[in-house]
Backbone:
């Protein structure tokens, strides 16, 4: 790891290398220009581009390259605009996008430029919608760059499209902030945490940006308000936030665990049936305690919906204690759901357990086994584990209604309406009980 420049009274030009294998630091070549509040970008060539910064007198336009093979720095093309407190983002095409920042007169900037490693030159690209500094910039999976917040009391955010070289506004954060962090999560969402604004001071709040909708939503706040901290995505999907300041320097650290982060766990399960053209309805299957009762079977395949904390990508196999497994697939409407279909025609008056083996998520986690159990008892519309005159009375009370979210259990024949056939089916199973 290369650390370069910064302040220690004056601005520094020195640089050091950290070796994780030995846990030691060694000096390496010094930059040609002392600077702080600059950016450092690892290029595809393995070289590091340092651009701009502040020397405690002026903003800088100069840039230089560090070569890890020789441990030396060489000057490269200068930016058109001197700036510090800007961001630098490596784009998928290998160019580096430098955006906004602050000039020598402490004014926020709107301009942006692109560095081409092949030519060592900078070219202007589209200017941002808002002038900003001490903001964040995050490369999204789409290849666009999300910029959020900024020193001049901004909650706004915008997107840079490398294909067109233009910026466009996107949803604004719920809280204005600068000196915050932005972390791309495995789910594709962006976590913004902490920071500072002049109305609220140091912030503990956090928000999530959804690129699909272009909107922000609040998420769990940090235990400690902080700004100028670090945020690191860990291999398990959690985010480590460390250090920073809230008026005093902080040594504390905390972990963020999102709905799409950390170990893979089964959250809930349901039995899903389609009722003619009236839609599909779910019966909850508790993971512990009482059974969820499925009061019909045989006319269509049973579908067990297993809902996980992360987006899943599939399972190696599935089994059922009764019936034959038909398919295992990810719900196209919600990737948190794994759909297991099976033919349960011979399972009346039985407890059925469906198990998915080696469920995988989009973060590389694997859950070795996930199980859901249900009681299948045709006609038990009240879900008490037995078919009685009470079940018949419940169905008769809504006879003639079209199937909806409130009466779907009474549609035992799954034809989209509650009718005489449902009453007769329940009556014919009177006296049956679950084991």
Residues:
């Amino acid at each position: 790891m290369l650390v370069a420049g910064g302040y220690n009274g004056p601005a520094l030009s020195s640089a050091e290398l950290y070796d994780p294998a030995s846990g030691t630091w060694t000096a390496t070549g010094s930059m040609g220009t002392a600077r702080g509040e600059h950016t450092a970008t690892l290029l595809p060539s393995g070289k590091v581009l340092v651009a701009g910064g502040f020397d405690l007198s002026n903003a800088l336009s100069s840039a230089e390259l560090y070569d890890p093979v020789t441990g030396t720095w060489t000057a490269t093309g200068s930016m058109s605009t001197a700036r510090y407190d800007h961001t630098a983002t490596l784009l998928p095409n290998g160019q580096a996008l430098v955006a906004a920042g602050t000039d020598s007169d402490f004014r926020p900037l709107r301009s942006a430029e692109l560095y081409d490693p092949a030519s060592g030159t900078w070219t202007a690209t589209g200017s941002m919608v808002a002038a900003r500094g001490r903001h964040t910039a995050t490369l999204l999976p789409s290849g666009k760059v999300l910029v959020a917040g900024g020193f001049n009391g901004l909650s706004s955010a915008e997107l840079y499209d490398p294909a067109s070289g233009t910026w466009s506004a996107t949803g604004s954060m719920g809280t204005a902030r600068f000196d915050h962090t932005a972390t791309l999560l495995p789910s594709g969402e962006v976590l913004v945490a902490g920071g500072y604004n002049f109305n609220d001071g140091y912030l503990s709040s956090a928000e999530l940006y959804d690129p699909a909708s272009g909107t922000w939503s609040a998420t769990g706040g940090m235990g400690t308000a902080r700004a100028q901290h670090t945020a690191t995505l860990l291999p398990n999907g959690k985010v480590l936030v460390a250090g920073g300041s809230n008026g005093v320097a902080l040594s504390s650290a905390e972990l963020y665990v999102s709905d799409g982060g950390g170990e893979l766990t089964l959250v809930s399960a349901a039995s899903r049936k389609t009722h003619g053209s009236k839609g599909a309805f779910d019966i909850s299957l508790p993971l512990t305690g009482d059974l969820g009762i499925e009061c019909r079977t045989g006319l269509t395949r049973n579908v067990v919906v297993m809902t996980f904390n992360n987006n899943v990508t599939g399972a190696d196999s599935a089994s059922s204690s009764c019936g034959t497994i038909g398919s295992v697939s990810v719900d196209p409407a919600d990737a948190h759901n794994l759909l297991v279909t099976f033919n349960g025609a011979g399972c009346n008056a039985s407890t059925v357990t469906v198990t998915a083996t080696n469920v995988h998520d989009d973060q590389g986690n694997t859950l070795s086994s996930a199980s859901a159990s249900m009681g299948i008892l045709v006609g038990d519309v009240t879900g008490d584990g037995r078919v009685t005159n009470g079940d018949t009375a419940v169905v008769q009370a809504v006879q003639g209604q079209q199937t909806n979210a409130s009466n779907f259990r009474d549609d035992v024949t799954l034809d989209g309406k509650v009718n005489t056939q449902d009453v007769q089916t329940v009556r014919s199973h009177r006296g049956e009980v679950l084991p």
In short: The mean pLDDT is 93.
